Amino acid sequence: MSSGTRVFWWGIGPPLLMAAAAFAACGIGAFDISYETVGRLWLSPLFPRMDGEVDDTVRYIALNVRLARVCLALVVGGALALAGAVYQGVLLNPLADPFTLGVSTGAAFGASVAILLGWGGVQLLAVSALPVAAFAGALGTLFLVYLLGSVEGRVYSTTLVLAGIIVSTFFSALISLLKSLNEDSVSTIVFWIMGSLSGKGWMHVTLVLPYLVFGTAAILFYSRELDLLALGDVQAQQLGVNVSRMRFSLLLAASLVTAAAVAVSGVIGFVGLVVPHWVRLALGPRHRRLLPVAFCIGALLVLAADTLARTILPEGQELPVGVVTAILGGPFFCYLMLHRKHNLQL
Q1: Residue in 78, 91, 141, 89 with CA at minimum distance from that of residue 111
Q2: Ordered alpha helix ranges (H), 27-128
Q3: Rounded to whole angstroms, how far apart are CA atoms 34 and 18?
Q4: pTM of the predicted protein model
Q5: Who has the most CB within 10 Å: 44, 69, 172, 233?
């Protein structure tokens, strides 16, 4: 297969797989809904008569419960994988992911504080205060990391990573302190930290989308500069890139996308770490084609993990989706590391 043909199929294949996976996931669940009914409901905006005989309960579950959750899983997974590709490209660190700079831990801390203060059920402009607190914690963490990682007004990849580790460790300790202070909220905090899409709907999708669209547009606009940053600071400066400003802009856009995703789903690990690795092995390092495919593959991974999380246990019980992604992603990441080690030895 030629390079052009391969890129073509990688361009249309993942979006088609996303649509097929979304359709399949909408038919899976404790409440039996046939795929014929799902198809009629999906086509009803174009052909209004097709859903005329569908029961209202079936319509509500198919569209407002399952389809909304499927769309949220796709959005969250795509956002985490996209941000992971940016982090790895900007920081020149193959182990970087959306949580390297402590963004996820900051979001978890913000949500934990809201739970401790009893704000979980509070509504702010028709939006739960919990994702708002998590979003604020994530963005606050990014600026704290940038403040600590600055050296004489300049920011370097190594100092950012070290600052992220320090801040993440500090906030993890604070979360443990909050759990010890309020034992009644421990289960809620732990389940949120493990990641879950349970009980989420269209409101959460609309909460994430504006930040995802804005952040993704900025990332794709600077995809060429991201390629140049991957060459190193000196080479990028020689090619006319303002390294400090571009690094901050890309990290801000990636962290904005990550914060929005984590604010509604909790901490879902390994997606931003494994997916960019896998796509690079298949397509190469050019970000103009890597980023869209990474988004699609990340979306598929989280959708598959969430479908397993809500169906694998009996009697309607659910696993945290973060646990499922760790089980799926951990062994694959070990394989990638062993593969890289074998190539280096050769």
Answers
A1: 141
A2: 35-43, 56-60, 68-91, 103-116
A3: 19
A4: 0.87
A5: 69
Encoded tokens for 147:
């403040």
- pLDDT mean for each 10 residues of the chain (346 residues): 58 83 89 85 76 77 90 94 90 76 83 76 60 80 83 71 86 84 72 81 86 90 87 79 83 85 85 87 84 93 92 81 83 70 54
Give dist(CA 308, CA 28) in Å, integer: 10
Our separate counts of H helices and E strands in the chain read: 15, 4
How much is the pLDDT for 320?
A: 86
Q: What is the dihedral of CA 186, 65, 73, 250, to 10 degrees?
A: -90
Query: What are the structure tokens assigned to 224, written together?
Result: 């060429």
Based on the number of CB atoms within 10 Å of its own CB, is 45 exposed (0-12), middle (13-18) or buried (19 or more)? exposed
Exposed (0-12), middle (13-18) or buried (19+): which is 38, by Cβ within 10 Å?
A: buried
Alpha-carbon gap, residue 309 to 301, rounded angstroms:
12
138/106 Cα distance (integer angstroms) = 5
**Alpha-carbon distance 328 to 317, whole Å?**
20
With CA atoms as reference, report the closest residue to 86 among 137, 3, 157.
157
Q: What is the dotted CATH code of the domain comprising 3-345? A: 1.10.3470.10
